[in-house]
Amino acid sequence: MSKFWSPFVKDLVPYVPGEQPKLTKLVKLNTNENPYGPSPKALAAMQAELNDNLRLYPDPNSDLLKQAVAGYYAIDASKIFLGNGSDEVLAHIFHGLFQHDLPLLFPDISYSFYPVYCGLYGIRFDAVPLDEQFQIRAADYVRPNGGIIFPNPNAPTGCVLALDAVEQILKASPDSVVVVDEAYIDFGGETAISLVDRYPNLLVTQTLSKSRSLAGLRVGLAVGHPDLIEALERVKNSFNSYPLDRLAVAGAAAAFDDREYFEKTCRWVIDSREKLVAQLQAKGFEVLPSAANFIFARHPQHDAAGLAARLREQGVIVRHFKQARIAQFLRISIGTPEQNQALIDGLGEL
């Protein structure tokens, strides 16, 4: 701790991202990256931007990408906000839309960046317990609040909340912003974007890091009523007017336009997920129902930390969380069939 730190910095508890190992021969199933590369059309679009125009600032509004998202979801561009990864989008939401006089609500087992943002922006929160099956219960969110946020599908569980349950939460808190964080929605859930026109308090966030294989590009978005979008634009333009560079805008727009590649790779991931679930269940694992590109699993006779260590010795990395309720679970990203087989081989006969 430096004497030059402000009291504010001294009290921060930062987010800890998943390990990004330097070794290249490891089978990396710990950070939910897509095992299949970006759309060839996205790569070509980015390569075309490698020219003298890089000396110029990018479009601060990223209109090319906004139009691609608007066309994909058949919505008006005024309902779209873009940022440098969904983490930046979420940061602006926490800063600009959640109220401080009542606690923010989110699940007790959820994306661990949420409490970090609360610490950063001085927001009180209540962590709402998932039920015994690790599911979100809509009725638990019917209470006074300064805002609500939850991933759907949830992370790290992978469990998805049906759209009618999302609507119950929205109806119960008409005076609060409800954020549905859809980082994994394309692997089995139903997006809440269809509800945006009916609920002015709804904001849906998404990322291109997962289903569109562009984690290295850092592109995120939010969809909601223009009033909510205007608030985010005010925050963004008081922080960084150019969050997306020229390569990111071109590549992300092309990725949205290439529906065929997107749908094909999502199917591959879903098919691999179902096969891996069956293989793990055959080895005695309990696997939570997943609509994401990862699974959450535990074995009744083996310690999760020990299994993670054993897999690492076999060259396979998975994510282990130390939080009490889930300390015996492993979060396993879905890889290629060959990577998934390496996981099964690494577990051996247990």
UniProtKB/TrEMBL annotation:
UniProt-listed GO biological process terms: L-histidine biosynthetic process
Residue positions where N6-(pyridoxal phosphate)lysine is found in the record: K210
Catalysed conversion reaction: L-histidinol phosphate + 2-oxoglutarate = 3-(imidazol-4-yl)-2-oxopropyl phosphate + L-glutamate
Domain Aminotransferase class I/classII large: 25-346
Keyword Transferase carried by entry: yes
Cofactor: pyridoxal 5'-phosphate
InterPro entries hit by this protein: Aminotrans_II_pyridoxalP_BS, Aminotransferase_I/II_large, HisP_aminotrans, HistidinolP_aminotransfase, PyrdxlP-dep_Trfase, PyrdxlP-dep_Trfase_major, PyrdxlP-dep_Trfase_small
Name of the featured protein: Histidinol-phosphate aminotransferase
Family recorded in the similarity comment: Belongs to the class-II pyridoxal-phosphate-dependent aminotransferase family. Histidinol-phosphate aminotransferase subfamily.
Gene this chain is encoded by: hisC
